[in-house]
Structures are given as structure tokens and as C-alpha cells.
Amino acid sequence: MSRWNSAGPTRILLGILAVALLAGMSPKPPARTIEATPAAYQAWRNALVEVGPNLAAPGHLGFFGRLRHIERFLAHIPADAKLPAVLYLHDCPGLKIEAVRDVDELAAAGFAVFAPDSFDSRDRKSDCVRFEYVAGLNPDAYLQRQSEILVALTEMTKLPWIDGSSIILYGLGEGALAAANYPGDEFRGVVLTGWTCGAAQYPQEVAGLKTPTDTPVLALVSRYDPWFDRNGRAGNCGAYMAGRKYAQSVVIESQGLHHITWSDGRAREAVRRFVTSLKPPRL
């Protein structure tokens, strides 16, 4: 008489439970109607802001700091300055050194830069474990970042010295995922770094580009990005750019460069050229 072996059914049951758990942790697709939440306003209030010297006016010293600490300096910028601006969305770990580097580079390129701090709210849970390259831990993260875009854009356009027709949306990693899924036509262009526009650990609903087809898009990713594939097989947003006349995908080939793209000369030049081309002519 054969004995019944419970190991097989047990493994099957554990497999089903694991699949169910992962499904519950998968990021939720962006809502069709984006709502302005209190957490998004809090992220805006603690945004990192930088305006370079002489950008607003000759002799203007510029400023760098958290919005709630430097808000009084904003009033000293002439209303007729009409500066081009960047709304910067940091990656899932928050406003770390790579985000500050991005903000500095964009300010040096002649933009007023605003980077909301998604983690200013204590209720905000991280979506990832930074150096273990694990993502998908906060299913609500992508909805929260969409709300941050809406609030920051609304607040930026209230500033009389910002040229509302010359705002660029720029995202890194999780921020790029949010930017790629933002369907509004308010931005002059969109920059996506450290994102493939679709990866195995994310649901199909957040893959691709939801930006308007006539909005200029620049996407950059390393082929060896450890968040996607350390063996050089990471995908890229080029697979989703058919029919997009003003979209470009740049793949970084160097094995020594991964998630952060500013260290690569070609990527850095591609970003500068792209954002500079979107500036309105100064009379």
C-alpha cells in the first residue's frame, strides 16, 4: 500500500498563498481621476527648491532649501521673470544624494526646480528596500505620487514668476513610473530616468507611456540597472514609443553605471540638450 505524501499538496498551497500575497502587494494602477490629498500638500510644503544665481534677474543670488524655510525668498523674484521650471519626482528611497545631484544639474541648466518630499508624511510607507533592490512594498505609492504631481503643478502655476507653459516633469525610478503614467497635457516635456516603462515586478497596468502622444519625452535607463536586470537585459521605454514623433529612448551601455544616469557623459548631455531645447526663447 502506497503512503500518501503531503509534501506535494503543501508546496502547492504555499505557492498559492505566495502568489496571493504578491498580488496584494503589486502597485495599484493610477486612478483615472487624480485627487489632491493632504499628504500631497505636505510633500509640497517640504519640497526642495533651487533657483540658480542670476536666473531670476541679474545680480539675483538665487536660493536652495526646503520650501517652508525659504518661502519668503520667493516673493523677491520679479513677477515678470517668467522662469522655465522643472517638477522633479524623487525615487522610492526619497530625497537622497542622487536626487539633490539631479536638482543641482537642472538648476545649473537654467530652471527653477521643485522637488516635493514624498516622505514628509509619517504615514508614507516606502515602496522599496534601497540596496536590496526589492520594490512593490507599498501598493498605494503610485497613486500617492500622481497626487503629488497634481498638487505641485497647481502650486507652481500660482507663482507669477513661473512660466506655466514651460514646466518639465522629471522622474527618477519610482518618480519616473509616476511621470510616465501621468496623462495630463500640462507639461512642456517629460524626462524619465531609471525606469524601463515596464518590468516583470510591476503589473501591466502601469507599463508603457500614458503621456499625450504629442508631448516630448526623453527616457534614459542603464542596460545593467540592478532594479531590473544586472546581466544587461533590462528593457527600455523605446518599446512603447511607436507613433510618438517627439519621444527618444537612450540606453546606457556601461556596466559601471546603473540606476543613476547623471554620471554618464552621454546621458548627461542628452538630458541637458533635451531640457534646453524646451526652453522658450528669451527676448
Name the CATH class: Alpha Beta
Beginning-to-end CA distance, first to last residue:
93 Å
Structural class based on helices, strands and sheet pairing = alpha/beta
Task: Give me the side-by-side strand order of the main sheet.
Answer: 2-1-4-3-7-8-9-10
Question: What global shape is seen?
Answer: globular
CATH superfamily: Alpha/Beta hydrolase fold, catalytic domain
Can you count the helices? 7
Q: How many runs of DSSP E, i.e. beta strands?
A: 10
Instruction: Indicate the low-confidence ranges by residue numbers.
Output: 1-26
Task: Report the mean per-residue pLDDT as an integer.
Answer: 81
List the helices and strands in order: HHEEHEHEEEHEHEEEH
Provide the helix percentage.
Answer: 25-40%
According to CATH, the fold-level topology is: Rossmann fold
Q: Note the main sheet.
A: 8 strands, mixed
Proportion of strand residues? 15-25%
CATH architecture: 3-Layer(aba) Sandwich
Total domain count: 1
Output the radius of gyration.
21 Å
